[in-house]
Amino acid sequence: MKTLKSNSVNEIIIKNSRFITLLYKLNDINDVSSLVEEAKSLYPKATHYCYAYITDNARRSSDDGEPGGTAGAPMLNVLDKEEIINVLAVTVRYFGGIKLGAGGLVRAYSKSVRDAILASEAVDVVKGYRMNVTISYDMQKNLDYLLKNYVIVNKQFNDKVIYTILLPIDKLSILGGYDYEILNEEYIEKVEN
User: If we measure between CA atoms, which residue out of 132, 147, 144 comes closest to residue 193?
Assistant: First the structure.
């Protein structure tokens, strides 16, 4: 599986119609409507704002007025075939005056998303845990060394130090002697070590 390193935009023109695909990193499906609204505000005179997204527990698409199954479903299919997860693809279309037909629309929306993915930087992801590790102050140096190849999201300094980290599922054993709490399971960037 892969996800995006950062948001991106790509544009193609097919028979005078402009297809602008915005790829957004999607951390929460509750952000979908605000991101689609953002695309609408960036391109206010477009004729369609079709979208598709896949997360680890949800997938959805919208044709936004295009003939049923000619935009959102093909976009979702591309995300699926490219094994892209936690990404929202919004394809904005400015109609160019030439009708593409159902097959032409399927090809155009598919190509627009595929080209946007190819123009973006993707990173491999694996199943992992977002978790808190609680330690005493004198153990910081040891834990910092142990986690040098992993993502430390945050450190809270109270009577003890609480690390919020992202750790691949298969690396959980490295925390053998530490007090930890798993917050949730999610896809995290794969780290080579």
Answer: 147
- Alpha carbon 103 to its chain centroid, in Å, reads 28
Q: How many Cα neighbours within 13 Å face the side chain of 64?
A: 23
Query: For tokens 């990193």, what's the residue?
Result: 25
User: pLDDT tens across 93-151, in order?
Assistant: 999 999 999 999 999 999 999 999 999 999 999 999 999 999 999 999 999 999 999 99
| Burial of 44 (C-beta count, 10 Å sphere; 0-12/13-18/19+) | exposed
Each residue's pLDDT tens digit, 20-39: 999 999 988 899 999 999 99
- Could you count the other beta carbons within 10 Å of the beta carbon of residue 165? 22
Tens of pLDDT, residues 175-193: 988 999 999 988 888 877 6
- Write out the two tokens for 169: 């599922």
Give the torsion through C-alpha atoms of 72, 115, 186, 39, to 10 deg. -60
Element (H, E) at 151: strand 151-157
Residue where the block lists tokens 């142990």: 146
HEC per residue, 7-69: CEEEEEEECCEEEEEEEEECCCHHHHHHHHHHHHHHCCCCCEEEEEEECCCCEEEECCCCCCC
The residue whose two tokens read 């023109």 is: 13
